[in-house]
Amino acid sequence: MKLKDYFLFGFAMTNSPATDRLYEPYWKLMLKYHGDKELDDITPGHIRILSKIARDQQAGGRRRNHQNGIYAQEHLIAAARALFRWAIDEGYATRNPALQVEKPKRPDVTRHALSHAQVRELFESCERDEDTVILRFLVETGCRREGILNLAPEHVRPARQTVMLDEKNSARREQPVSRAMTLALLADDCPLYGLTRRQMDGVWARVRRQVPWAEDLGVSSHWMRHYAITSVEQVAGYATAAAFAGHRLVRGATASYVKVGLPEVAAAFSRLWGEPHPCAGSVAAPAASGTAFAAVS
């Protein structure tokens, strides 16, 4: 079967909208250059050359944090591996040439946690009340971008003062929020529901217009997640920060002992925001001096 004939079938094999968005431009690049080739005629060399084309295109696009196109190169190889894996499973191909192409080594991450003063400046730059609410939700929950885009009224648990975040690979987790955020989520005109990616981009475009250093760094929603997770780690340790972030601890005997749950996350939240939380119970501790989110309270 030719790649162009398999393309739509392979595209339907994904079970995640996020995967579709990530891999689609790389699959289309494969289709552009090798659509008329039989799947088994595509070689590792073809994939290797395409990965370099993807890298050069991204590097030339002047995108922030693109790391000279390394991520585009990595994503094309991953997209090719997935497409050929499904083709093999369905009997349309006999080998996966992308497995023979080594992914580039990832450079050190340049993103760092913002300071309280920097976050305060971001909040003060907000020209619209709804932008302030959006930024506060990002800081309170440390959610991924999908978490706020997928948010719906039925995800709010008022009595527990939490929200259910629907994020990476449809993984869901319960996250504590403040009393003020709970009230905002229950309001009929809450701006957090039905947000689109374009609207989120608009929020950051408005913020970056007012804050030159944020424009230079390309500050986005993930910077707020980084800030929130780092803040939790500083008051409650690595295991609690991992639970807050929705990350898995490294496997091993120790990980089974230090695994924490919602009560510990809520206790850390209580310390940072300086207010009690119903899910913290007896685990909660008074806010530590200098660690509460005074910047955005």
Question: How would you characterize the overall build of this protein?
Answer:
The chain is mostly helical and 297 residues long. It has 2 domains: 3-100, DNA polymerase, domain 1 (Orthogonal Bundle), CATH 1.10.150; 116-283, hpI Integrase, Chain A (Orthogonal Bundle), CATH 1.10.443.10. Helices cover 54% and strands 4% of the residues. It contains 14 helices and 3 strands. It has a 3-stranded antiparallel beta sheet. Strand 1 and strand 2 (162-166) form a beta hairpin. Helix 2 crosses helix 3 (44-59), helix 3 (44-59) runs antiparallel to helix 4 (70-89) and helix 12 packs across helix 14. The model is unreliable at 288-292 (pLDDT under 50).
Which architecture of the largest domain would the CATH scheme give at its second level?
Answer: Orthogonal Bundle
Instruction: Provide the low-confidence segments as ranges.
Output: 288-292
Q: Describe the global form.
A: elongated
Strand content: under 5%
Number of strands: 3
Query: What is the mean predicted local confidence, pLDDT?
Result: 87
Biggest sheet architecture: 3 strands, antiparallel
Number of helices: 14
And the CATH topology of the largest domain?
hpI Integrase, Chain A
The assigned structural class equals mainly alpha
Series of secondary-structure elements, N-terminal to C-terminal: HHHHHHHEEEHHHHHHH
At the fourth level of CATH, the homologous superfamily of the largest domain is: Intergrase catalytic core
| Integer tally of domains | 2
Q: How much helix, percentage-wise, in residues? A: 40-55%
Radius of gyration: 22 Å
CATH domain class of the largest domain: Mainly Alpha
Strand order of the largest sheet: 1-2-3
| Alpha-carbon distance between the two ends | 59 Å
